[in-house]
């Protein structure tokens, strides 16, 4: 199958972020003062467990980042023609989920639609009843076999999960059983063990999904019949993008201004302090609302500039990250300024000044490396707050594009359905659970990272 | 003291001017009033005359900052910048895009906002302090450990979940409270109980954890060890020494949000149908009423700066070690 790769704006930034992360990891490996705190993180049971969960989310997000347009045949001149629809690797893997569309709502593991319809019986009579779903449980001749089928598939799924887990462990232990035995016995490997157990949970879930998701709607379907589990998976990328790119885009400004204010003092300090006090005195939500309203006007009046809906939604996501970044860089800037004020009094900075080293060399060589741990801590700490903020903003309609899959949009479109009888709860529950697991893992991980890099910072953040 | 307050107020003025310029740029320079009119009237097939009328009705038909046709001082005053932005300093918010007086609306909607925000703050404060004292008392035990884990878990739950879950559980299933609505006067309490409970619960996670850190920091200090050495009971130490000293950062943290209580809570008010300033703002955002959003941005900034000022003053009042220079 031919395809044409597509790199959206946020994709490019994610690749950049990935490159930065790999670069930082390589840098940290060669520097003992950076390796020590990471070793402490690696020795924490909570952190390693959380890391496995985060890893699964990141993997889903990355799969959803590789975009392309599939080949759709040839035009008259024999040139390949590509579909307008932009797909991702995740769409390819989860193709059954994407294609299994029902008419409207259906409950998790349902065999019948949520709403009655007029059905024509084989003998020509018409009755109003709940019709069978087109895909969910369609492999069963008799819906009464549902419980038996699910039990069988759950059992098979759990077995498959165990096999996957065992295989992965063996692979990681490079096939040596002695290593595995040590993993489960040695007291100094408690953190790795906790990672392994979390991995088991993830593997079991994977096994269940592989066995069940193809023939059942695990989490039901939404108003237009789309699989809720698929939507939740697609929302992972949006959550991660908001949580990481926001801090990435604000970092250059915050770091530069923060250390400049602390280092140069005098009028530079005054101007920068004025800047961030002004920005932070506007309530964040209102500033975001104002900016997003203005962007909506711009997009409405310049519709021709966007090639496709996907591209437009993507740019809107990026813009939201920018705006969130503008409202959240001030706290980091303030922290960095304070730290730099302390650093510039230290002997090695004063020695450099006495030697006549240029200011920007001092900043780059002596100040910046010594405040980087604060940057790292803030990036990790901010992540969970941003993921939660996305849901709230989407609820007020100033979040991501309504066409983008996101937990906020899922909640927003499902909350009115709670008034229905019986309650349509699955969309809400799915969004909240996916969000909760990600944010909880991020919070637990962030705490350990903060304590490892700078326990004093606990008082200030 | 007086001189310090005056200087702080003077220092706030350039910041307010900055906020004002920022909103002006955001609302009138990024997109011209023509764009706004087109947004409101529909993008396609809108006549120039309709746009001109829309602008004239709302006073957007003047030049932005410099009116070359006017005489004398009017060159500066007969402009959008003067009409819409400079007047904000006198708290003259003008008319909303749908023609209502914003200042009047704000004065009216302030009270329901306060009626929900003040109880949430007080209840939340009481609950958080008691829980965190409990954790600090049992520090280092399993109770403390699982308490903190519970706090982190509660922090990780979306605020929307607390609201929707509370509405469904307490309002719909148990039928204890009306799900939404508001009545002016003393009857209001029936409608306020549910949002106050939910508001307080959603703050427990982060609040308790934060206060616990403050308490534990005090517990490690010398004067606490001295108090124990004197033979005081753990309870007397905790209430008499630790709590009193930890109250300083707690109180100043509370003071900074007091002025912003007027703005109400965006989510709670719109979910519970309370006619306060929070739901006012949300409605304005969804109706794309720029005049109201602009007024609220300015008002929010004023209140925030007021909060910072009060914080600094309260520091000097509760902590004699802090001196004003």
Account of the protein in words:
The complex is a heterodimer of chains A (461) and B (325). With 461 residues, chain A is mainly alpha-helical. Chain A has a domain at 228-460: MetI-like (MetI-like fold, Orthogonal Bundle). Helices cover 67% and strands 5% of the residues of chain A. Chain A is built from 16 helices and six strands. Chain A has helices at residues 9-29, 32-42, 45-63, 89-93, 95-99, 146-172, 177-185, 190-212, 228-264, 266-281, 284-301, 309-343, 347-354, 359-395, 407-414, 426-453; strands at residues 3-6, 67-74, 80-82, 87-88, 117-120, 126-129. In chain A, the strands form two sheets. In chain A, strands 1, 2, 3 and 4 form a four-stranded antiparallel beta sheet that branches. In chain A, helix 13 (347-354) crosses helix 14. With 325 residues, chain B is an all-alpha fold. Chain B is 71% helix and 0% strand. Chain B has helices at residues 2-29, 33-41, 48-58, 74-77, 80-85, 102-137, 142-155, 159-173, 189-219, 222-229, 234-255, 266-272, 277-287, 290-318. The radius of gyration of chain B is 25 Å and the shape is globular. The mean pLDDT of chain B is 81. Classes of the chains: A mainly alpha (461), B mainly alpha (325).
């Amino acid at each position: 199958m031919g395809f044409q790769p597509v790199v959206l704006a946020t994709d490019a930034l994610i690749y950049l972020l990935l490159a930065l992360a790999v670069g930082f990891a390589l840098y940290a490996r060669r520097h003992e003062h950076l390796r020590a705190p990471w070793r402490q993180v690696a020795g924490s049971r909570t952190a390693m467990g959380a890391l496995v969960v985060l890893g699964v989310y990141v993997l889903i997000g990355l799969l959803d980042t590789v975009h392309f347009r599939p080949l759709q045949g040839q035009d008259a001149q024999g040139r390949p023609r590509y579909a307008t629809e932009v797909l991702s690797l995740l769409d390819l893997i989860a193709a059954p989920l994407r294609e299994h569309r029902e008419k409207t709502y259906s409950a998790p593991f349902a065999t019948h639609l949520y709403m009655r319809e007029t059905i024509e019986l084989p003998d020509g009579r018409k009755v109003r009843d709940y019709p069978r779903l087109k895909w969910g449980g369609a492999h069963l001749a008799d819906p009464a076999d549902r419980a038996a089928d699910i039990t069988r598939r759950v059992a098979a799924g759990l077995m498959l999960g165990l096999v996957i887990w065992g295989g992965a462990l063996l692979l990681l232990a490079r096939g040596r059983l002695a290593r595995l035995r040590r993993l489960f016995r040695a007291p100094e490997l408690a953190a790795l063990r906790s990672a392994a157990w979390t991995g088991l949970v993830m593997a079991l879930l994977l096994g269940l999904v592989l066995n069940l998701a193809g023939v059942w709607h695990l989490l039901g379907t939404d108003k237009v019949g789309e699989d809720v589990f698929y939507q939740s998976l697609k929302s992972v990328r949006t959550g991660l993008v908001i949580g990481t790119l926001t801090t990435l885009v604000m970092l250059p400004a915050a770091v530069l201004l923060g250390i400049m204010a602390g280092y140069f003092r005098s009028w530079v300090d005054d101007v920068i302090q004025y800047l961030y006090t002004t920005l932070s005195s506007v309530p964040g939500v209102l500033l975001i609302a104002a900016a997003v309203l203005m962007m909506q006007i711009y997009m409405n009046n310049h519709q021709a500039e966007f090639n496709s809906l996907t591209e437009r939604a993507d740019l809107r996501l990026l813009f939201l990250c920018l705006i969130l970044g503008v409202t959240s860089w001030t706290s980091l800037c303030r922290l960095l300024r304070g730290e730099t004020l302390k650093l510039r009094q230290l002997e090695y900075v004063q020695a450099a000044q006495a030697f006549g080293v240029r200011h920007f060399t001092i900043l780059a060589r002596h100040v910046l490396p010594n405040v980087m741990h604060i940057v790292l801590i803030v990036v990790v700490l901010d992540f969970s707050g941003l993921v939660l903020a996305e849901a709230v903003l989407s609820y007020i309609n100033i979040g991501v594009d309504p066409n983008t899959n996101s937990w906020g949009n899922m909640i927003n479109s499902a909350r009115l359905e709670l008034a229905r009888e019986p309650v349509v709860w699955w969309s809400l529950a799915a969004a909240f659970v996916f969000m909760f697991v990600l944010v909880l893992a991020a919070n637990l991980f962030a705490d350990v990272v903060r304590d490892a890099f700078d326990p004093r910072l606990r008082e200030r953040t | 003291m007086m001189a310090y307050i005056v200087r702080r107020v003077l220092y706030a003025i350039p910041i307010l001017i900055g906020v004002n310029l920022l909103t002006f740029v955001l609302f009138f320079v990024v997109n011209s009033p023509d764009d706004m009119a087109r947004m409101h009237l529909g993008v396609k097939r809108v006549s120039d005359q309709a746009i001109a009328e829309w602008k004239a009705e709302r006073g957007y038909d003047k030049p932005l900052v410099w009116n070359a046709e006017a005489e004398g001082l009017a060159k500066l005053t007969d402009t959008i910048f003067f009409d819409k932005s400079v007047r904000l300093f006198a708290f003259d918010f003008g008319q909303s895009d749908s023609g209502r007086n914003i200042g009047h609306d704000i004065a009216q909607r302030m009270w329901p906002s306060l009626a929900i925000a003040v109880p949430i703050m007080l209840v939340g404060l009481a609950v958080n302090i008691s829980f965190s004292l409990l954790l600090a008392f049992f520090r280092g035990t399993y109770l403390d450990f699982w308490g903190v884990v519970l706090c982190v878990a509660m922090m990780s739950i979306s605020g929307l979940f607390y609201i929707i879950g509370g509405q469904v559980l307490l309002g719909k299933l148990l039928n204890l409270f009306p799900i939404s609505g508001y009545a002016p006067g003393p009857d209001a309490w029936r409608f306020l109980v549910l949002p106050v409970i939910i508001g307080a619960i959603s703050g427990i996670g982060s609040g308790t954890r934060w206060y616990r850190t403050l308490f534990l920091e005090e517990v490690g200090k010398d004067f606490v060890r001295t108090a124990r050495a004197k033979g005081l009971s753990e309870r007397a130490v905790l209430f008499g020494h630790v709590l009193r000293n930890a109250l300083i950062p707690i109180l100043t943290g509370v003071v900074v949000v007091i002025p912003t209580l007027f703005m109400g809570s965006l989510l709670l008010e719109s979910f519970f149908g309370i006619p306060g300033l929070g739901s006012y703002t949300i409605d304005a955002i969804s109706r794309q009423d720029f005049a109201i959003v602009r007024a609220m941005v300015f008002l929010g900034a004023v209140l925030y700066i007021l909060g910072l000022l009060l914080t600094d003053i309260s520091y000097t009042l509760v902590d004699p070690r802090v001196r004003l220079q």
